[in-house]
Amino acid sequence: MKRFFCFGKFMLSALTVLSALAAQLAAHAQSASPVEVVEQAVAAVGGVAALRSVKGLSLKADAQFWEPQQSYVADGEPRFIGDSRLSLTWDGEKDLSRSDWDRKFEYPFVEEKKYSEIVSPRYGAVSTAKGEVPMSDIRVAAYRRELEGASPVLLLKALDAPQKLSSLPDQILDGKLLPSVVFSDGDFKFTVLFDRSTKLPAAVRTLDDDWVYGDVNYDLVFDDWRSVDGVKIPYSQTYKVNNTVVGRVKYREIEINPPIAADTFAISDEARRDAITPAQGSVPYQWVIRRLFLGRFLDSNTVNYPSSTTGLKLVELSPNVQFVTGGSHNSLIVARKDHLIVFDAPINEWQSRWTIDAAKAKYPGKPIKYLVLTHHHNDHTGGARTYVAEGVAIIVAAPNKAHFETVFLAQHTISPDELQKDPKRANIIEFDDHVTLDDEFGEINLYKIVNPHAEGMLIGHLVNENIVWVTDLYSPIRDEDRSEMFVSFYEGLKKLGIAPGRIAGGHGGVVPRSEMEAIMAKR
Q1: Which of 63, 193, 368, 389 could form a disulfide with 340 if both were Cys (CB 3.0 to 4.6 A apart)?
Q2: 96-105/201-210 β-pairing
């Protein structure tokens, strides 16, 4: 009876809370129509006439970026990427824009990059000191979506197309319920949230698919509104993925309707000829946007490999070892007596499906038993869910199990993957320092290794073939410098007493040990 009484008190308390929440929702129920909400916002920004007078603008800004899926500890503090300076010029009448970037990276490498992005409604180009190349269609699409979402005339565009506006229940931003509307503009669908008191836009939200997180809210949050020639502009803009900050832009200067030089948006005939019409329909927005933030976007319509190449391929390292290469990220297939083992699941479902099918074709009758994930970073694990859908067990080093449990339970309803369509319980095997996978074909030793890149990083040693698999710490062929990550890998091998004949990388290629020794000898 006492237990029932306590449960009853809990239920009564829960009902009280729910009733209070219902009352709050009712009090905040949106009585105004979507058009009226937008009209109020337009008036708050400066009015229809002021917004219609905006034909173009130029701005200078400081920017910072972070990447949560490149954290040192899984689900820990997002990795700071670096500081940037941005100059943007926009011609609203011709629908042309140019962004000039001066970027100083702290991660993944300390380096500087300068480049310009020039985008029209049909194509785009990237200009560097080395020349000009056409943008991939998915980059153009992502650029134009983000430009439109941040545009001071987005509200006016919505007001001019009321048939594209729809109502929406109040949405939550930073713990507050805010009036919201949806504006659908072709392939772009924006949820605009409004400050209840000022009527100004509080944020522009898009619903995206992330290959690791699944369904995510991607918010552009506005703050520090200032009047420029009668139009209010948010001088502070923060980008968030599920409320985690991934970017912050602060304007230093803004000029409305500036003089624009005739050659500002010029694109070479070659780049224009090779350019492709912006992608329609499914675009991996989160991958494109955040790889651009990271400075590591492969500007290719095929995402996983350069569009100028034939794609992924198997390179035989021994009769029982296949190197999956041809793209920006690699995997390794290892055949055992009656099963297969795969190292890493880069990028997305497409690459995993290709690798799984190639493995089955190369070694018919041998199912994949284990997927070994070297660490938690998204570019090497974004396709792991595909293996779970295949019933493959996942091997990780501590403390990564909890992270992957969450990943494999994530909902992917926006762009359903194989695991979403056919859910399976993940079998995740976690080890602390060392584990051996052994059968008649020989030993495979997995070692957790101390390094500055990611907690829970492992390397694999195929004993019979004397091949070591390593990801990120050293990228054979590509890496020529003695970095901190490289040294941690080299010293880890020495501590373990491993003298590999060959080293295969999650990036780059395959090299003999002598190449590694030559790098270590550099001062």
Answers
A1: 368
A2: unpaired
